[in-house]
Write a structure and sequence with these properties.
By secondary structure, this protein is mainly α. It has a domain at 15-68. The chain contains three helices and no strands. It has helices at 2-11, 15-40, 44-69. Helix 1 (2-11) packs across helix 3 and helix 2 packs antiparallel against helix 3. The longest helix has 26 residues, at 15-40. The two termini are 21 Å apart. It comes from Ruminococcus intestinalis.
Amino acid sequence: MYKEIYLKLCKCTDVNFSLGVSVISMWIFRIVCSYILVMVLDMDVLGVWIGMFVDWYARAAAYLVRYLSGRWKKHRMI
């Protein structure tokens, strides 16, 4: 479902939103969360793995909110 919504948002030239969510989510959730889990909580590789999943769920939630809001429909299709 996450990939399906992502592709629909990209096809309707809503790429700036998709790119922004990807970059911000990667830095906030994947990198910072992984750093905290590995360095502070000493979780090793499991901490990185959990950080990646947190990132994927955050992206999926952002894309789902954008999809359900219908704002992506205002852009023209390619």
